[in-house]
Q: What sequence folds into this?
């Protein structure tokens, strides 16, 4: 029975879902679902649900399905059948337990990676359907705890890591001081109106990965670019509200980001190596506000590094000598088509690139994306075990000699790190910026 | 704004400082800033190996600091900066640091007139606002979105009033934030509070508040409007200070509400940044009449001309009869006045400036990395390394251009007063 929790895996307790569900009634569930079906769903949802012929072509595209012994309940069509299709069929008359399970499926068993949409003969976008389920769960207050907490951080601080206003500026100045030990004239120009570029990052950079800001500063300074970073809220380009279905908050934080760039009158936003933030800036967040495209042209770090290397603004002193493999982040590869630029950059900075297979737009997700890793520790092993195919890909690349995996995305790093650790693969993980910083010609070396 | 009638409005060009030569003296010179009257130009420079100060018209501050940043002039010509000395932060005004120092100080707010300067600050885990060096008596575990009244005498901020652990989502949803005005916190807590804004006289304050995950509204002096919406943007006071408007998201779309009631019946794909004309007779806002098309609406009537990228920075003429904004289409920016865009577009445009009689509009623009001043759509012939916003004289006969000419060691900062008749001729 669909109303009963599945017992194929260990029951996982998540207080966001469990305690949230204590406040639900069947009547409230029915009202919210019916409102959503009558309102936001539109023809798109109806078309998708009615068009699916259960051909199963999407199944082989999904790492959760492949990694869970091809259990059909983990197939994209199976996830639809267990969630939104049933809500539609029953006109919202579903139980509290059904909704708890629907929240779990939509938030922890689908990375919204859109790989399945490429293999569906009708182009059904299951990511859209799972996001719709998450939006219903948001309206019912049964979003997993950790990602809900991140959404709260966005709402209170305009960044995803509870970074306070002073901590952000202090971190930038700290990194500037550190970098001046290496490049005495280096600057991280704050609030420089009229600069060509605004560099924007995600919340974890000042909190946990401050060296990435250091490295970016060295790259910008070496390339001689006119750049700035904001000293106000709006600096964070990330967006977990996009993944909790809190569309109004997604719009609010994206407005803050774009209006910061517009206030500084920069020509372009350069984003750090983050995939989901790119999706928010380039697709969902901007459009939630009414902007067909980003109001300030925005490039992902892959495009930025490609531009710097292909125009000679930065040069490579000595290529990275360990063989590398490439993980293609879904949101900038399937979402933006940057796979060839990524390979240009990888080959420009590394001696040897060993391809993972399948790759480019056919690559498998890291299983962290779509907010799944942000659902936190309760769901970690389900996430890692749900991507044995990625572990297999990494093993195969390693067997061909790859020592390092390049992943130009923060969430991919988190996901791959867990996969590598749990499966004892023994592989280094790097951002492009890590390697570029290491191999580039710096002013004192010129 | 500051009274400009006593500024030097004699036509002609005057050198303010040969700033290109500063590099030879100090080695380290950051981007310059210029006072509104064009009489002072300043930049952060290195005063010795590890100390920084501001250089103003070639004269360096007597005091130097471990770090100086966010250098800006107030409207009445005081040079302010955030300074760090021995690990403690404060604000320096014309080279004189406030006596009070803090573990961190940031977000300086400069008054439109000659009032106090405010900033946010913290000591340990205690956050507060500071006015002219005087901290609030009350402190909070977090403070953000500092706002000041027009005269600078009142300050407010969003503050955290209830501590909660990261991950305690249900505590957060009970409401742990509020607004403090001059250090006095409102009685009611909210899940979120955003964009506090004072009434023109500084006696009232409005802010957007989220009551639950799904209910947002406007609170005025701590009291929420009776109705709620799925979203709302920044509130704005009527010039008389009695009424409050805010864009709200209703089932129809985005509409403008006033004191909790729908004021503009038309629903838009987007609506924000509403503003009153100085005489309070007209109310305008940036709107998207449909997805992906942007324009201005005045009293709920959108201009016929729309733009694909965005419309921003609207401003009424002093007499309230004309309205100008920045418009962007296909990555090219221009100024649009009363629905008619200038013929020429540019890489970048700064907010338009009206002449006192409202007949002329000027703006600084950037094209091919050179700044220019454009008046009524026609670029002046000179191109600059840097320029600041042009200023019309009070009688509207002259235009003050503040700019840096030349580059490198040859760069000079100058003020140029041009008769408007010459420009138009």
A:
């Amino acid at each position: 029975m669909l109303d009963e929790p599945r017992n194929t895996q260990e029951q996982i307790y998540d207080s966001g879902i469990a305690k949230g569900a204590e406040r639900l009634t069947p009547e409230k569930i029915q009202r919210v679902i019916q409102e959503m079906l009558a309102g936001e769903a539109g023809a798109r949802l109806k078309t998708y649900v009615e068009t699916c012929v259960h051909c199963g072509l999407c199944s082989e595209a999904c790492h959760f399905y492949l990694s869970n012994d091809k259990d059909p309940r983990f197939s994209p069509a199976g996830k639809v059948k267990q969630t939104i299709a049933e809500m539609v069929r029953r006109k919202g008359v579903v139980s509290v337990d059904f909704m708890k399970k629907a929240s779990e499926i939509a938030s922890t068993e689908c990375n919204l990676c859109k790989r399945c949409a490429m293999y569906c003969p009708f182009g059904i976008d299951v990511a859209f359907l799972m996001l719709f389920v998450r939006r219903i769960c948001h309206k019912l207050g049964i979003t997993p705890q950790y990602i809900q907490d991140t959404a709260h951080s966005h709402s209170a601080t305009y960044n995803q890591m509870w970074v306070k206003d002073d901590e952000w500026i202090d971190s930038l100045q700290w990194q500037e001081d550190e970098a001046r030990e290496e490049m005495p004239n280096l600057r991280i120009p704050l609030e420089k109106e009229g600069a060509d570029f605004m560099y924007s990052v995600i919340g974890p950079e000042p909190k946990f990965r401050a060296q990435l800001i250091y490295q970016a500063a060295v790259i910008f300074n070496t390339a001689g670019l006119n750049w700035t970073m904001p000293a106000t809220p709006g600096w964070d380009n990330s967006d977990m509200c996009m993944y909790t279905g809190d569309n109004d908050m997604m719009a609010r934080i994206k407005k803050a980001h774009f209006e910061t760039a517009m206030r500084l009158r920069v020509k372009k936003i350069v984003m750090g190596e983050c995939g989901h933030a790119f999706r928010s800036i380039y697709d969902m967040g901007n459009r939630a506000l009414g902007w067909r495209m980003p109001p300030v042209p925005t490039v992902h770090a892959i495009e930025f590094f490609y531009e710097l290397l292909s125009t000679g603004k930065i040069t490579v002193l000595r290529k990275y000598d360990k063989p590398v493999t490439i993980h293609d982040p879904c949101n900038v590869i399937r979402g933006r088509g940057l796979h060839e630029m990524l390979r240009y950059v990888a080959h420009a900075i590394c001696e040897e690139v060993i391809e993972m297979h399948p790759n480019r737009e056919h690559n498998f997700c890291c299983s962290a994306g779509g907010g799944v890793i942000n659902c936190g520790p309760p769901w970690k092993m389900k996430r890692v075990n749900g991507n044995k195919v990625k572990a297999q890909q990494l093993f195969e690349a390693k067997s061909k000699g790859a020592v390092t995996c390049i992943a130009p995305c923060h969430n991919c790093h988190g996901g791959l790190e867990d996969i590598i650790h749990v499966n004892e693969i023994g592989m280094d993980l790097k951002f492009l910026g890590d390697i570029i910083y290491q191999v580039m010609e710096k002013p004192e070396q010129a | 704004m500051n009274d400009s009638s006593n500024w030097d409005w004699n036509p002609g060009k005057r050198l303010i400082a040969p700033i290109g030569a500063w590099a030879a003296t100090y080695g380290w010179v950051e981007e310059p800033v210029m006072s509104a009257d064009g009489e002072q130009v300043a930049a952060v420079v290195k005063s010795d190996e590890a100390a920084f100060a501001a250089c103003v018209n070639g004269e360096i501050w007597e005091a130097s600091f471990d770090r100086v940043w966010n250098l800006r002039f107030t409207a009445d010509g005081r040079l302010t900066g955030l300074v760090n000395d021995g690990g403690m932060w404060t604000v320096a005004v014309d080279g004189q640091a406030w006596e009070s120092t803090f573990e961190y100080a940031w977000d300086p707010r400069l008054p439109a007139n000659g009032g106090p300067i405010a900033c946010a600050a913290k000591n340990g885990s205690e956050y507060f606002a500071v006015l002219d060096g005087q901290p609030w008596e009350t402190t909070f575990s977090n403070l953000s979105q500092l706002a000041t009244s027009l005269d600078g005498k009142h300050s407010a901020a969003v503050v955290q009033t209830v501590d909660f652990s990261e991950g305690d989502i249900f505590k957060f949803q009970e409401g742990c934030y509020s607004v403090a005005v001059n250090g006095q916190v409102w009685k009611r807590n909210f899940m979120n509070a955003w964009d506090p804004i004072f009434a023109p006289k500084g006696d009232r304050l409005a802010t957007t508040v989220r009551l639950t995950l799904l209910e947002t509204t406007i609170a005025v002096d701590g009291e929420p409007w009776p109705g709620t919406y799925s979203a709302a943007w920044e509130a704005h006071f009527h010039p008389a200070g009695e009424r409050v408007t805010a864009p709200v998201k209703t089932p129809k779309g985005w509409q403008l509400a006033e004191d909790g009631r729908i004021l503009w019946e038309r629903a838009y794909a987007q609506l924000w940044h509403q503003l009153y004309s100085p005489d309070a007779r007209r109310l305008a806002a940036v709107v998207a009449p449909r997805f992906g098309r942007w324009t201005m609406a005045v009293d709920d009537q959108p201009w016929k001309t729309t733009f694909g990228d965005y419309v921003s920075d609207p401003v009424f003429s002093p007499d309230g009869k004309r309205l100008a904004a920045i418009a962007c289409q296909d990555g090219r920016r221009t100024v649009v006045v009363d629905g008619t865009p200038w013929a020429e577009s540019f890489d970048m445009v700064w907010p338009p400036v009206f002449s006192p009689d409202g007949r002329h509009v000027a703006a600084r623009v950037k094209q091919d990395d050179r700044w220019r001043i454009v008046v009524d759509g026609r670029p002046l012939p000179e191109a600059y390394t840097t320029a600041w916003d042009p200023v019309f004289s009070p009688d509207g006969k002259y235009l003050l251009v503040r700019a840096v000419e030349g580059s490198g060691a040859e760069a000079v900062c100058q003020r140029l007063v041009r008769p408007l008749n010459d420009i138009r001729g």
About this structure: Residues 169-174 of chain B form the longest helix (6 residues).
